[in-house]
């Protein structure tokens, strides 16, 4: 049976999940809190844990996983400023290698069991299989760097940015917006990294925040 689409405040559940994921990517604590007001804590926790491997890329500490466990506990304890302040692979110069491993990491033969491997070795108790390719990439690259911080986006949530509504959301599919500013396509990760290397995070954060917001009451004609 097909799952019925759930809407909260006139916006799809998929969009609120996308907000949590992209808020971690851009470093926006209030965006995560806005998603948390609409979705349960467990859902947000899993969205952010996926983001640890897709974006944050904590140092592997030569196989000790201390930094990953710290990140997990920051998420569990709602320390969103801390987790958002951590530099991502976009600013740590891992993104080219991350993207070069796309074909290898998306091959199911290579990713079988990586979720169980990460559970056995860390404080994690469950990982969404959809992020197995990123776990594989993180494991293969084995990042080893000192803790690096970035500026966070210290702005209040005033509405759903249109740049959250890409093809992973109900609204984005209806509007035929497959890829937006912060989408998690491999080629877009590389675009984000190139911009961060050239401009720093602040310009990208402001561009994201100042984007037009989605107003379901005014834009229902789209659907």
Structure, explained:
- This protein is mainly alpha-helical and 223 residues long.
- It has one domain.
- The protein is 56% helix and 4% strand.
- The strands form 2 sheets. It has a two-stranded antiparallel ribbon.
- Strand 1 and strand 2 form a beta hairpin.
Question: Helices and strands in order, then pairings?
Answer:
Elements: E1 7-8, E2 11-12, H1 13-26, H2 29-38, H3 41-56, H4 66-76, H5 80-85, H6 89-92, H7 95-100, H8 102-105, H9 108-111, H10 114-121, H11 132-141, E3 160-161, H12 170-174, H13 186-199, H14 201-209, E4 213-214, H15 216-219
Helix pairs in contact: 1-2, 1-3, 3-4, 13-14
Uncertain regions: pLDDT < 50 for 5+ in a row? 219-223
Element-by-element helix/strand order: EEHHHHHHHHHHHEHHHEH
Strand content: under 5%
Supply the number of helical segments. Answer: 15
Oligomer: single chain
Largest sheet: 2 strands, antiparallel
